[in-house]
Amino acid sequence: MNLIVDVGNTLIKMAVFDNGKIISYRKIPNAEFSKSVKSIFSEYFLIQNAIVSNVGGIGHEEIAMLCVFCKVHVLSHTSKTPFKNSYATPQTLGVDRIALATAAFYHNPKGNTLVIDAGTCVTYDAINDYGEYLGGAISPGIGMRYKAMHEHTSKLPLLKKKGIMDFIGNTTETSMHSGVINGICNEIDGTIEQYRSRFVDLTVILTGGDAQFLSKRLKNTIFAHSKFLLLGLYHLLEYNKR
Description:
Blueprint: E1 2-7, E2 11-18, E3 21-29, H1 33-43, E4 49-54, H2 60-67, E5 71-74, E6 84-85, H3 95-107, E7 112-118, E8 121-127, E9 132-140, H4 142-151, H5 172-198, E10 202-207, H6 211-215, E11 223-224, H7 228-240
Parallel strand pairs: 1-4, 4-5, 6-9, 7-10, 10-11
Antiparallel strand pairs: 1-2, 2-3, 7-8, 8-9
Helix pairs in contact: 3-7, 4-5
């Protein structure tokens, strides 16, 4: 069994894999990491290996605690990857994007793939049919767009995401909702079209916390997979065992 740990800015996703399948999944606040690790190993004592993708939500002490229970691979730019990395600055490539690129490589090994991760930021990551990671783009996510309008103006309120009835807002709040939701959907649809103009038979995968919310609002046909990054981490763990 393998333990997969994806540490975000505020939440941690933890999954137990057995023979390539998720048999346990939980999402917890960062502060509950140690408690959850103990709980998982008391239930799944056959776990022998773990991988941690950490964007800064936990420190060395938490990782050292995990090492007490099993072998731990902390994902970094020095980790082995199954794809060719053509990113100009591989040392700055986020571990989350490495995991998404790996998941794309295994999901569509001989095709062109664009992975869109709609989380705190929206990231775009492309792998071509030669198994080469090309890079992509990073833009503000839904929550960040609402927060930016509130914090960088004197009167605009802080809103939570909400579906829009019409792209023409007739109040300040509906105008803000239209700007964020309509804007991000047009961005994603437009970006997909840019990639499709360059790559033949492009497979598009949408993942991340806002994937389900956005998928039904996009014009393009996409494959939504909420646990795509976890699959990439599983493959990376197996690949780095060799």
